[in-house]
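User: Hello! I'm new to structural biology and keep hearing that structure can be predicted from sequence alone. Could you demonstrate with 2-C-methyl-D-erythritol 4-phosphate cytidylyltransferase? Please show me the input and the output so I can see what each looks like.

Assistant: Of course. The first part below is the input, the amino acid sequence of 2-C-methyl-D-erythritol 4-phosphate cytidylyltransferase. The second part is the output, the predicted structure written as tokens.
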Amino acid sequence: MSQAKTSVVALICAAGQGERAGTPLPKQYKELNGVPMLVHTIMAFLKCDVVQEVYVVLSPKDAWYDVLVAPLVGDAVKAIRVGGETRAQSVCHALGVLDDSHDDTWVMVHDAARPCIQGSFIKKLHDEVLQRDAIGGLLAVPMVDTVKYSEDEVQVKKTLDRKKLWAAQTPQMFKLDVLYNALSDALVDETIAAGITDEASVMEWAGVSPLLVQGEVANLKVTYPHDFKLAEFWLTQMKA
Ligand code: CTP
Ligand code: MG
């Protein structure tokens, strides 16, 4: 008897305003090497054969997706216009839309602002989570800087043990209904919600340990103005 194929959908978060990047349009629409950032991000998932469907969560007020992105990515990508005030709210609202029609499905949540994600790393995350029978997992990179802990932004209280520190990236992969339930519960409490900055943190809050899968530094999150050039560099390297 043939085994049913694991169902995996990608959810790309593109409902932010990109304030730190300081661009006239939200940063996900800025062109990198002549193509909007969000198109690079979407194409990585559309081309990856472990992903069956690609969704993008947009702000309800978004005026740019239909003009700048939809003509380049086509109907294969479905836009969900339910973005919230925070990233966690955007993800939670979108999962709420997908939950009823996606039984026994894994979701890979990814930042639109990480356009240099490579298909090989999407597949690596997928394969390691499934092969190790993990509750879910995330791409992350070991810290290279020594990390200082401060409570007042002035004085160092202590130095953290770098060997135990990882910088979390996306995609992050979990069962869609499990993640949706955990996020819905966590976002009820404002104090807890404030500490939810990625999917792994909400699963940790729910009491489970996500799997760390080593990613690469090229998968940066475009945040500040100087990051655009850096992302263009990595996109060029990836094509070479
Ligand atoms: N995001 C989202 N909904 C929000 C906030 C962020 O979908 N309410 C998305 C962004 O579009 C981005 C990703 O989450 O792709 C990571 O967030 P971040 O890098 O912080 O982007 P912005 O929130 O847009 O930028 P800033 O914080 O500088 O305003
Ligand atoms: Mg933000």
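User: So the tokens describe the shape?

Assistant: Right, they're a compact way of writing down the 3D structure. Reading them back into a model, for example: The first helix runs from residue 37 to 46.
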